[in-house]
């Protein structure tokens, strides 16, 4: 297991290195001159050359990359030329917790509702319950996330005035306020993943309940709930964890629209603003943070496989 974990960690580091090279190279090729934008009305050839030298942008590209990568590792991500604040403080300490809170809330909501609905649909196959769950999931996936968010704002925020529609409250500072502010964004972001989890749980549980070991559990007289939730659902966990790990990228992509609709100051809104303002340092920080989240999540999924299925343990 130690060698298996070390090999996975090494692969993760290699992927992150490739992502860092790709993001640095693509932003170098992007049109526009960030130094000219930083100078604004104070632009002159002398000031431009001086700031280029000060930022190290007049050095070879390979040296610039190594300096940027070493700075990123130790938390020196540069300074935003618009807010004049350190990018690490702005991106990692302020924007990232908002996106993580939104993603975790949406994922928890999708799993806590999606798995029981999938179990209900599988154990009531070809009944009215199965048709009702299928209709519900199909309806949920038919709405684009931005439209669903606007619809929820209009119904529950404007007409019924049950939930706030804008802003973010940190749940670690105000738990109830955080839950209330995150309810509508989490529902908006979780709808697609909830439907996916329902379908995945249903399909795999139907197959699992037809296996001989489930028939043996029934023959031993075990309760129906134990046959379904212990023997049957255990074999659903592996594909479910796999899909959740692979879908993190789509979750983060959906968070961009959700943060825009609900005015959440997260990574998505930060990167949108940075692209429009050509703040390449902020864009690089956002790309690397997103890549780290995605790759580390998949690393956790890979390391969890041997514990979810002993057959996958290295020998």
Automatic annotation (TrEMBL):
Keywords: Cell membrane, Membrane, Transmembrane, Transmembrane helix, Transport
InterPro entries, A to Z: BPD_transp_1_N, MetI-like, MetI-like_sf
Topology term for the membrane: Multi-pass membrane protein
All copies of domain ABC transmembrane type-1, residue ranges: 96-301
A Pfam short name: BPD_transp_1
Domain of life: Bacteria
Subcellular location: Cell membrane
UniProt family annotation: Belongs to the binding-protein-dependent transport system permease family.
Protein name (database record): ABC transporter permease
